[in-house]
Amino acid sequence: MKSQITFRDATLADIDAVVALIESAFRGEVSRAGWTTEADILDGQRTDIAEMSQIISGIRSRVRLAFQREILVGCVRIEQEESAGYIGMVSVSPTMQSAGIGRQVLAEAERVIRDELRLTRARMTVIGQRDTLIAWYERRGYSVSGKRQPFPYGQSRAGLPKRADLYFEVLEKSLERPL
Known about the structure:
This protein has helices at 15-26, 49-57, 101-116, 131-139; strands spanning 5-9, 42-43, 61-68, 71-80, 85-92, 121-127, 143-150, 160-161, 167-174. The chain is of the alpha+beta class. The strands form 2 sheets. The chain has a 7-stranded mixed β-sheet with strand order 1-3-4-5-6-9-7, with helices on both faces. A two-stranded antiparallel ribbon has the order 2-8.
């Protein structure tokens, strides 16, 4: 029986744990324990304390934390844009991936965007070469918008690319409630 996932907004006191979780989900050898690793296409960091401090302290941004039995198992960045809520850094502890936690984290982000921010669209960017991850989001109702954004080569915060053809696909989903 799966235990209940509970959510709350991150505070500045959570930064070290949030950075460690995000790094473990995406980068380095530890990330290979899960399926969301970027270790084959990027080295270096995925985020840092300064970026997380900025997001958590932001007026239009937050990080939602997911706990299972009081243990941090996931998180998601949510940012209020003009016409949509931006979802980023959807992270689940590598050893807990494929247990449905990611779905719950994503659903919570969508709930916040729809019910608290009162926006009717969710938007995210995913590295275009990550076909499996894009397909996962498509199964959750996201569509590839046809818009692409360049990968920020030369910005260490984005990581150290192992290939020269990286870009971001923009995915979108309507969050309007059916009549």
